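User: I'm putting together a teaching handout on how multi-component assemblies are represented. Below are the sequence lines for each component of a complex, exactly as they appear in our records. Could you produce the 3D structure of the whole assembly as structure tokens, so the students can see both representations side by side? Please keep the chain order the same as the input.
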Amino acid sequence: MPELPEVETVRVALEPVISGQTIESVRLTRENLRWPLPEHLDKRLLGQCCSVPKRRSKYILIDLSNEETLLIHLGMSGAIRLYDQKPNFAKHDHFSVEFTSGQWVVFSDPRRFGHLDLFASDATCKHPLLSGLGVEPLSDEFTDSVLASLMKGRTTPIKSALLDQRLIAGLGNIYVSEALFRAGISPRRKAGTIAGQRARRLTEAIKVVLREAINAGGTSLRNHIQPGGEIGYFVQDLRVYGQAGQPCVDCGQGIKQIIQSGRSSFYCSSCQR
DNA sequence: AACAAGACCTGCATGC
DNA sequence: TGCATGCAGGTCTTGT
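Assistant: Of course. Below is the structure of the complete assembly, with chains in the same order as your input.
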């Protein structure tokens, strides 16, 4: 499911529910998701007070009162749902937390590509899943000159480079296609040719697409719903993703679908060069 | 070093 | 209706 806007939507929804709240009970129905879960995860969370949830790339980070940090990654199919009382649990509700307020936070993930981890808070920046991540695309550090220098010399297609989390952290398959369309850049273009005006257009397009998607509550295709049950309305604003064969909104020519690095890319070969 | 492919999983749409 | 196939929002690991 989730790229940066969907994860940010989840973080925002969690904030009022868990910030300053104490964990009353934990329901854990598996010992592993993508990888084995931390030992005694459930017991270690009991009685902990949660701080304001943070986001790094597609990871949600929650600092706890015992100086440990809970990391949540939603993988492809993960979702978080909120309830005002104990819910009826479904098949893939692997991890649920009850707060002393009576509210429940439920993590479900049919494909189990997601992950949970718990580690000392002061080791967060050294965590193997976090330490190699690239620049946050919505931060002030992400500028056109930074983008150009990240791409310089790379022969891989720009589509593949934008998906590389070591370069820019948080983009996924939907928003890469959407940003490249808005920037008028072909997903097949060599990454190393992104500089100057193209870098300016692409940097701006990435920021605009991500911000618009966050404001719309993300994109709902299959699994993603906002934690309160609402869908993400950015699905209505997709201009190329999933639109193969449909007319381009700018020129009317059919949107093309190609496979790059094993993943679908959608683009208009007339508007994107 | 850089890049592509394979692997991990389940669910769903499609076609026979 | 049942079954096989292919595809899906991610990313670590392996192979070229």
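A couple of points students might notice: The domain at 144-267 of chain A is CATH 1.10.8.50 (Helicase, Ruva Protein; domain 3). Chain A has six helices and ten strands.
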